[in-house]
Task: inverse folding
């Protein structure tokens, strides 16, 4: 099954949703939806820069928020837009989840990327991570 990503309206903010056959694919899809706020066509984003990071959380919902907020922080701090993601989620001995992520992107170019809607942070609004209709779904709302 392919990774799917989409936006949904939520007041003045934007919902992001990803789905796939695994939780990792669902998280990757949510990140793709997030960065379509800055670059309409993720495949057009050049993978010039690779970023690695880890997040830990007690549950998958908290892990999704931590993951998206880390991506938003990296994008803001380094002026990057990301187009490709790789996620690995595993249980830790202390019953938490560990997410290892890599994201590939390029510097934001106002001539090529939409820069009018900048994500400020992932929220716990409409937060959901779980199985639905045979697929994993990861969604939340992003303040813009």
Result:
């Amino acid at each position: 099954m392919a990774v799917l990503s989409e936006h949904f309206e939520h007041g003045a903010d934007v919902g992001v949703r990803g789905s796939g056959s695994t939780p990792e694919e669902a998280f990757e899809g949510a990140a793709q939806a997030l960065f379509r706020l800055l670059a309409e066509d993720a495949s057009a984003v050049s993978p010039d820069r690779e970023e690695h990071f880890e997040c830990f959380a007690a549950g998958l919902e908290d892990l999704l928020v931590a993951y998206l907020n880390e991506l938003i922080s990296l994008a803001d701090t380094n002026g990057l837009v990301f187009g490709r993601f790789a996620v690995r989620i595993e249980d830790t001995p202390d019953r938490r989840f560990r997410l290892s992520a890599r994201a590939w992107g390029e510097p934001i170019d106002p001539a090529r990327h939409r820069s009018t809607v900048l994500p400020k942070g992932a929220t716990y609004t409409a937060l959901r991570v779980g199985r639905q209709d045979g697929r994993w779904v990861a969604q939340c709302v992003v303040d813009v």
